[in-house]
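Following the same procedure, the fold was encoded as C-alpha cells, giving this record:
***
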Amino acid sequence: MERMAANYTKQIVCLANSRKPGGRCIAGREILKSGVGGWIRPVSARPTAEVSLEERRYENGVDPRILDTLTVPMIGQVPKMHQTENHMLDAQYYWTKTGEMKWGDLKDLTETPQTLWGTGNSTYYGINDAVSAEDAAKLTSSLYLIKPSKLAVQVQTEGGMFGPAKRRVRADLMYAGTNYRFMVTDPIAEEVFLGRGEGAFAIDQAYLCVSLTEPYSGDGRCHKLVATIITKKPLE
C-alpha cells in the first residue's frame, strides 16, 4: 500500500486495548474542546488492521492503558463496513500520553443503545453475540461503552469436537433487559480469570467496552466481543 502523508492527529481517551491476532485493537472516544466526541479506532495498513506494539507504544516504551488520554498521528479515515470509526495511524510517529481520565468520569461517556446490535443470533457458546454480514452492512457503528445491570465472567473449557479444547473467558451480562454472552478479549481480564480456574465470577459496578468484528471466515458472521472490562479497582 502506498503510504500517505500524515495530516492530522486525534486525541482520545483509551477505552479499549484488546487482544487481536498479531497485535491489539485500540479504540477510544475523541476529546474535543467542546467535550467528548465520537469513537476513534486507530488501525494499521495491514489487511487485518491490528496495531503492533511498535506502532502503539509511547516513546518511553509504555503501552497505552485504559483511561489514558493520548494523541495519535493519523493519515486518513478508512471506514470498513460497519466499522466507521477507523482511522489509519501514521506508524512513523510515537503516540503521546497527555493525561488520565478518572473512573468516575465514565458515567458521562456511557451509551444507552436499545440493543447491542440486535438480538436473536448466537454462536455455539454465546448468547445474542453474532450478527449476519447482511445485517451488519446496515449498521453504522461497531463500538459502545455500556454499563450492564448485571455481569458475571465465566471461565469454561470449550471445543474438542472440531479442534483442541481450550479454556475461554466470556462475559455473561444483562443489558436493557436482555441477556448477552460475549467472548472477552481484554488481555488483563483474561489473565486474571484464567488464573482463577473454571467457574462464574460476579462483578459489581463495571463498565464494558463492547465491539463488533468484521465477518469471521469460519461462519461469515460478525461477532460481538467485550474488548475491555473497566472496574473501579484493578481486577485481581
